[in-house]
Write the C-alpha cells for this entry.
Amino acid sequence: MGNQVMSVLKKDYIYNLMLKGQRSDGRAFDEIRDIEIRTNVIEKAEGSAWIKMGGTEILVGVKLQVGTPFPDSADQGVIITSMELNPIASPDFEAGPPKENAIEMARVTDRGIRESGAIDLNKLCITEGEEVWMVFIDIHVLNNEGNIQDVSSLGAIAALLTAVVPGEREGRGEDMPMPIRDMPISVTLVDIGGEMMIDPALDEETVCDTRITIVSNQDGSISGMQKSGDGALTEEKLLKAVSLACQKASELREAHLLNI
C-alpha cells in the first residue's frame, strides 16, 4: 500500500510539472541528458565503450570468435546481443539469469543493428557454409537512472566502431576493422498526461502511460520500433515522435560517433 501511495504521489508531482512545461531534472521536453563516451576501455575485448547518459552508466564489450553460420545465411556472420542488469545498478535488479526486460532491451538493440545492415555480415564470412565470424555484443548496466535502452544502443554502436576482427590471432588472415555500414541510434519517448518527453529519467519511466523507442539510420529510415505501456498513441503523435527521434538520432551521431 505504501508503494502504491508513493507511486500516485510521484505521478501527480511529475504531471503537475508537465502542466507547467517542466521536468523534474529541469530539462525541456525534447532535451536529452548530457552524454559522455569513452572507447577501448576493456583491454581483452575486440571493441568496447563506456557510456554515461545523465546518471545511467553502461559498459559494452564486443568479442569475436569463429563459428558456424546459420543454414539460411551460409555466407553471413552472426550477431548475438545480450544484456546484464547488474544488482549494483539498481535495487530492483536481481542476480541470476537475464530477466524478461533485459532480454527485450537486448533484442531491440540487436534488431536495430541487424535490420539497418549496420555490419556488413557478408564480409564476416570466412568459408561459405562452414566458418564465419560471430560477433558477441555484451551490455552491462552499471547504474540505472532511466532509459537503459537508448544508452545501450549508443554504447553498442560506439563499441562496434572500435572493434577489430582478430584474423591474425585466430589464424584466419590479417586483422581488419569491423565492417560498419551504418550507425542506427535508438531514441525513446514517453507519454505523460498527453505530452511526449524524450530520454525519460527513471521517475518518468515509472509513471508514464506509454513508452516508444524508435531506431533510425543515417539516411533517416526506420530499422526498429518498440512500444510498451497501456496508453495509445494517435497517428499525429506517432509521426511527431518519429520525426523528433530521427532528428535527435542525427544530432547524437554528429556529436558522439562520427569522430570515433
About this structure: Helices lie at 2-19, 100-116, 148-162, 202-207, 235-257. The first strand starts at residue 35 and ends at 39.
